[in-house]
Design a protein that fits this description.
The complex is a heterodimer of chains A (about 575) and B (about 450). Chain A folds into four domains: about 60 residues, Elongation Factor Tu (Ef-tu), domain 3 (Beta Barrel); about 60 residues, OB fold (Dihydrolipoamide Acetyltransferase, E2P) (Beta Barrel), CATH 2.40.50.100; about 230 residues, 3-Layer(aba) Sandwich (Rossmann fold), CATH 3.40.50; about 130 residues, Bovine Mitochondrial F1-atpase, Atp Synthase Beta Chain, Chain D, domain 3 (Bovine Mitochondrial F1-ATPase, ATP Synthase Beta Chain, Chain D, domain3, Orthogonal Bundle). Chain A is an alpha+beta fold. In chain A, strands 8, 18, 19, 20, 21, 22, 23, 24, 25 and 26 form a ten-stranded mixed β-sheet that branches. A six-stranded antiparallel β-sheet of chain A has the order 1-2-5-4-3-6, with no helix packed on it. Chain A contains 16 helices and 26 strands. Chain A is globular and about 90 Å long. Chain B contains twelve helices and 21 strands. In chain B, helix 2 packs parallel to helix 3, helix 6 crosses helix 7 and helix 9 packs across helix 10. The chains are: A alpha+beta (about 575), B alpha/beta (about 450). Strand 1 of chain A pairs antiparallel with strand 5 of chain B. The structure holds adenosine-5'-triphosphate and magnesium ion (MG). Adenosine-5'-triphosphate binds next to helix 3 of chain A.
Chain lengths: ~575, ~450
Amino acid sequence: MGIVRIAGPVVVGDVEGASLGDMVRIGEAKLIGEIIGLRGEQATIQAFEDTNGLGIGEPIESTHFPVSVELGPGLIGSIYDGIQRPLDTIKMISGDFVPRGITIPSLDRDKKWHFEPRAKKGDKVSKGQVVGTVKETELIEHRIMALYDGIMDEVREGDFTVEESVAIISGKEMNMIQRWPVRMGRPYGEKIPSYEPLVTGQRVLDTFFPIARGGAACVSGPFGSGKTVVQHQLARWSDADVIIFVGCGERGNEMCQVLLEFPELTDPRTGRPLMERTILIANTSNMPFAAREASVYTGITLAEYYRDMGYNVALQADSTSRWAEALREISGRLEEMPGEEGYPAYLASRIAAFYERSGVVKTLGGGEGSITVIGSVSPPGGDFSEPVTQATLRFTKVFWALDAQLAYMRHFPAVNWLNSYSLYIDDVESWWEENVSKDWRELRDRAMALLQRESELQEIVKLIGTESLSDEEKLILEVSRHIREDFLYQSAFHEIDTFTDTMKQYRLLRSIMYFYDLAKEKITDAGLEIILKLPIRAKISRAKYLTDMAGFDQIDEEIKKSLEGEDG
Amino acid sequence: MVRDYLSISEISGPLIFVEGTKDVRYGEIAQIQLNNGEIRRGQVLEISGRRVLLQVFEGNEGVDTRNTKVRFLGHGIELGVSGDMLGRYFSGFGDPIDKGPKIIAEEKLDINGSPINPYSRDYPLDSIQTGISAIDGMNALIRGQKLPIFSGSGLPHPAIAAQIARQAKVRRKEEEFAVVFGAIGITYDEASFFMRDLQETGAIERSILFINLGDDPAIERIATPRMALTTAEYLAFEHDYHVLVVLADMTNYCEALREVSAARKEVPGRRGYPGYMYTDLASIYERAGRIKGRKGSITQLPILTMPEDDITHPIPDLTGYITEGQIFLSRDLHRKGVYPPIDVLPSLSRLVDRGIGKGKTREDHASVSNQLYASYANGRNARDLAVVLGESSLSDVDRLYLKFAEEFESRFVAQGGYEDRTFEETLDIGWDLISMLPEEELKRVSDELIGKYLRGRKER
Ligand SMILES: Nc1ncnc2c1ncn2[C@@H]1O[C@H](COP(=O)(O)OP(=O)(O)OP(=O)(O)O)[C@@H](O)[C@H]1O
Ligand SMILES: [Mg+2]
């Protein structure tokens, strides 16, 4: 009987031995799909590939295995489609346009890796314990973990392909590859709280709206507000061990940019090419949208695998709205009862389940690993009240609200400092105190208060001009401008400005606030006019380009001199 | 085995249901023969058992359930392409409508194309000169980019489109350049203006037009941009052309999509447009690009009119989420008599950085552009202030900026409909304007560039 109905990416038909979630091959073209509904033997399938040309009666075969990923050495540096097919190999086999029905192993079967045992013959090992390592890239030591408890009967050092046996555990051969269903979270010991920030080198994020390692953040804003640039900046500069970038329903040129750039850019901490810690997953907006739905799960499963090895992983999903829209589309074709704006009623629970896979964990192997998730949301018309933004904010503790008006004024990153928030500030405070400075929190809060005061004053100015303001208030406006233009504004494209370490962030903000404090004291004696004309202000504006801390000592010195100097 | 079905069971808007079918394929094209012999074309949208849902491109007027015959053709919608298409006009469905000879297809291509493998893409790195300063100087169009024009009804986007089609060029002589124009539901006047213009200026030689007029079948509009892009892909990736694809008006395209969706009784998304409109538009816009190892490129310039000038309307909104920037037409500038009325402040070409500069356009391009942008923004602020508080309350510097903004609009943005400026000419006008400002105000241009381009100018 085979296929009985075809409606876009939804195919209905009889599948022998079907079970929910299993991957199937549809029709003579052998398109890949997933069983998302079952009634008796009749399965409802979402096709991950274009269904044009399919006909009624064509066979559907089950693989009797859920949609899953291959895990093992060789993942890092790869670019995959939404269901983990390597796009570089696909190009080699079938040229520049994505074909249908192609099956290619995700991991290279011929490549040999040097396996170095970490356990000896006779050792008792437990599931998740590291039994050997492989140098995957200069940056990543790939840790091969036992799949079950047992005794090491044998373990072999040497060069092996992923399929060759490297050990025998309690009578069973073990190689370096395993499969894992993408919709199922990988097991861990327990979740543990996080008190460390993921340092991104982006001033407005680290200082004002920090994300903790293992946390989840939502970056949302209308088109052109800078979501992708923020995501790319995090992929470039954040201090994670492994980066997984999921391009979900966005532009081909953006993936191309990462592919061309990352092998050239170097990690500021290790000096190695960024590609040596990065995995890309690309389902561009013109690729079949059902695979978009799978791509975020593919990404997070790979993230969990490296977390289990004890790494800190950061996963970027740009944009989760496209994933949600794919859900909506499939749901619509299934004629399910639509919820808000046509999204299925289970939208929020799917979003929750995804972000729930972030966190810092004690791994089964006894180590510690983390996944930090940063999801972009693309709200229609830039309106944050829409369902995807709202559902996401319920499960993420950081909101980076990008603002059309700021982007329009070319203030980047266009993170609106009044609407954005981070619920991790208290958690990461002690890290900043220990690693940067005792008064970090106070400084940050004072600067924030100034910005808030500025916005109130701006309201007044709009109505009656600056004339009605006191000198002290005018000073607030001027200093806030320093904070905005010299601290918050950060060019992603400037060689030095693109990344600022935490100490420099602190010193930069401290110098601005130091200027404010002294200026405030002097304002009645010296007069605002004089203070605003001080040449030190131009130096503060260029301080973001300084590369050593001595420069900041000088600036502070000069602030002191020019405001206390002559009469002090 | 060809079969004619006489089994239409239901007609609903542009859709028909055919019963008792066999061996029909999803996406297949069908030929629908009316009782009077007229032939129309339809495409399979859904198959359920032996029942097929077809979308009829020419509409269902005159279709009946008794005598109308349906025949499935065994393939999707195809276009026969050939290098001989240059200089020719076609209907929105790809049939020649000029008096020229029949096109002998070198290849038959499915108009849906296939997605470019992201790994095969090459980054857009070179520009196209449109001869329009507000675009070339401030938001250069990059080969392989998709850069829409956001317009409004009554604004002169047809004239701008024609001017671009006429003037656009790549600057290296040995490179081939072509324009493919997809007219989607535009008026007869617009279309004939366009055709006449290309004829008279000789630009027709390197152009191909697909024309669906406002009174042509609405559903045909779903095919028209794909016809244009299929042709463009053929020229770009098999014959090394740099192809500029102008699609106007995408708003009409989206309305056709909405019509089909409504007829299918789908759950409507925002303002009645289907929930899959993002994906559908992406299947058009993402066909811009470059491919590693191939010489040609596809650059798209879709034009759309924003209903009620509302940028948050789903058509400009979803377009903006897919394209790489936007060129914004302003009603204010239009009222002031500025042609082309391009407001450079909300306009942005996202890929510009790597497509301009030394060896591509000129070394000072980015700096001039940034300086003009910043100064014009200052001027516009000053203008707003002047409106609230009166011009006399402006500081000297603000007054200077105010003057700058006026000059920028009248000398840089405004230009003749047939005035074709080179990048150099555009940048030189930019320096003329910059020279109005005192040097200490010029924070975006280096001393070196000031020395080279500005000081000499002032002495002159
Ligand atoms: N930090 C930054 N520094 C300089 N320019 C920036 C920065 N962030 C964004 N931009 C500018 O804004 C443009 C749009 O940014 P981006 O592509 O990230 O927007 P987006 O929010 O992802 O839009 P979309 O939703 O359409 O994908 C960039 O091409 C760049 O010109
Ligand atoms: Mg983006």
